[in-house]
């Protein structure tokens, strides 16, 4: 193992996107070993290559991020979102839409799920819900925009059949998300550590940032949560993954506990 080269690369990755490999250099090595062979570079040389070939970051991000996701993931949380949170915004119109941000959308299953759940409430007219979906990985964003998912894929593991029939079209070996749902989602490339990009998202009412913070250290988590606090409107809601918590971190968010889920509401900072 080229420990010095791996540490240098881990530092570059941390500065770029906040993912922390310092305690797991062997994992980083296994993720990039094939790419290094392809380029004929050592780990140390690869750090230099990233500086002169910034487009290589797209390839590296694709290698080091885990993009395993599926429709209707964490059903208890989604039920709370649909039955408790969405009705609070039922007066929204196309001129003043409800803005929901899926901030680590991967291949699109989460934002399309949120769009379907919004439609299923029957509370909103066309154009009254706007979903911004972002990820740092260009490759998965391209897949998400297409809205095509293999019929045998992991994506549909918890998909209710009536939802599948209503919002998807059979398309050869794939199911395709219907255009009415795709039109609700605006896909963008966003690095959660880049404050300038986050500002361009604009003010939002609800943020989903699930299964992202597990890759960050405390410093990066604080930076991301602080940025999400800024873009959320007063009283807005933040949903994290079930294994993630910011309770006790003095972030300005208050924790809401229900019998089956917990999430956060933007409060006042003291």
TrEMBL record:
Keyword Transferase belongs to the record: yes
EC number: 2.1.1.80
CDD domains: AdoMet_MTases
Domain of life of the organism encoding this protein: Bacteria
CheR-type methyltransferase domain span: 1-269
Enzyme class, spelled out: transferase
Annotated GO MF terms: protein-glutamate O-methyltransferase activity
InterPro entries to which the protein is assigned, alphabetical: Bact_Chemotaxis_MeTrfase, CheR_C, CheR_MeTrfase, CheR_N_sf, SAM-dependent_MTases_sf
UniProt entry keywords in alphabetical sequence: Methyltransferase, S-adenosyl-L-methionine, Transferase
Biological process terms in GO annotation: methylation
Coiled-coil segments: none
Keyword Methyltransferase tagged: yes
Catalytic activity: L-glutamyl-[protein] + S-adenosyl-L-methionine = [protein]-L-glutamate 5-O-methyl ester + S-adenosyl-L-homocysteine
Any matching Pfam family: CheR
Gene3D superfamilies: Chemotaxis receptor methyltransferase CheR, N-terminal domain (1.10.155.10), Vaccinia Virus protein VP39 (3.40.50.150)
Protein name in the entry: protein-glutamate O-methyltransferase
Species the sequence originates in: Acetivibrio thermocellus (strain ATCC 27405 / DSM 1237 / JCM 9322 / NBRC 103400 / NCIMB 10682 / NRRL B-4536 / VPI 7372) (Clostridium thermocellum)
């Amino acid at each position: 193992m080229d420990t010095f080269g791996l540490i240098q690369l881990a530092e570059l990755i941390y500065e770029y996107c906040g993912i922390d490999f310092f305690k797991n250099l062997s994992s980083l090595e296994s993720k990039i070993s094939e790419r290094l062979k392809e380029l004929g570079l050592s780990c140390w040389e690869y750090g230099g290559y990233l500086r002169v070939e910034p487009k290589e970051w797209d390839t590296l991000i694709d290698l080091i991020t885990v993009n395993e996701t599926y429709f209707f993931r964490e059903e208890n949380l989604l039920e709370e979102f649909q039955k408790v949170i969405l009705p609070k915004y039922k007066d929204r119109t196309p001129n003043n839409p409800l803005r929901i941000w899926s901030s680590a959308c991967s291949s699109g299953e989460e934002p399309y799920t949120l769009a379907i759940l919004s439609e299923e409430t029957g509370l909103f007219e066309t154009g009254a819900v706007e979903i911004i979906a972002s990820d740092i990985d260009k490759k998965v964003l391209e897949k998400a925009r297409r809205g095509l998912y293999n019929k045998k894929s992991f994506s549909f593991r918890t998909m209710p059949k009536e939802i599948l029939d209503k919002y998807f079209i059979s398309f050869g070996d794939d199911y395709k998300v219907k255009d009415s749902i795709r039109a609700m989602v605006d896909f963008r490339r966003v690095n959660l550590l880049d404050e300038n990009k986050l500002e361009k998202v604009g003010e939002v009412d609800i943020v989903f940032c699930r299964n992202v913070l597990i890759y960050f250290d405390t410093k990066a988590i604080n930076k991301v949560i602080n940025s999400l606090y800024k873009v959320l409107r007063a009283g807005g809601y933040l949903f994290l993954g079930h294994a993630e918590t910011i309770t006790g971190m003095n972030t300005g968010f208050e924790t809401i506990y229900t019998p089956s889920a917990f999430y956060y509401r933007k409060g006042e900072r003291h």
